[in-house]
Amino acid sequence: MHHVGMTVTDLAAAVAFFEALGMELEGKAHMEGEFVDGVIGLDGSVSEIAMMKTPDDRYRIEFSQFQTPRSIDGSSHAPINALGLRHVAFTVDDLDDTLARIKPHGAELVKNVEKYEDLLRTCYVRGPEGILIELCEYLT
Fold first, then answer.
1. What is the mean pLDDT of residues 67-81?
2. Structure confidence by residue, pLDDT tens digits, 40-71
3. Which residues pair with 68 in a beta bridge?
């Protein structure tokens, strides 16, 4: 897998949130033209993108903010049992520290931080645009 793509209405907020989570901005680009339209299937599209990567350079998330055509609501606040891509999961070294770092960027705990046996602590949080993130801290 190369990357996962997400469309947002506030690119700067998404970048800031995922930087606070520990990802790194790999680059930004302005996207428009015949090539892009041919790939994504939207004529006359204009967007800004940001590619974020994990510190180990293994995984990426591409965020797109469209100027044209305007983005449509894709049920970004749907519950976990809704069909489609629902969440992205990250392992973290310190769950409490991670939650503290992302809270100023709009992170909202979905319900609780739970402990599974003596193996891990985990929770779901909603980030910008309702993006659902699972955070896991392995205890062993």
1. 78
2. 888 999 999 999 999 999 999 999 999 999 88
3. 46
DSSP state of 9: S
Query: Is the residue at 76 inside a domain?
Result: no
Joined together, the tokens standing for residue 15 give 């970048």
Q: Identify whether residues 55 and 92 lie together within a single domain.
A: no
User: For the domain that residue 93 is a member of, what is the CATH number?
Assistant: 3.10.180.10
Token readout for 87 is 């969440």
Tokens of 43: 């004529």
The answer to whether position 105 is within a domain reads: yes
Kindly report the backbone phi and psi dihedral angles of residue 129, in degrees, each rounded to the nearest multiple of 5, phi listed first. Answer: 65, 15
Residue that is written with structure tokens 């992302």 in the block:
102
C-alpha count within 13 angstroms, C-beta hemisphere, residue 132: 16
Residue 40 lies in domain: 4-68
Residues 40 and 47: beta-carbon distance below 8 Å = no
Task: Please state the rounded mean pLDDT for residues 14-34.
Answer: 96
Mean pLDDT of 70-75: 79
Per-residue pLDDT band at 76 (split at 50, 70, 90): confident
User: How far apart, in whole angstroms, are the C-alpha atoms of residue 47 and residue 61?
Assistant: 16
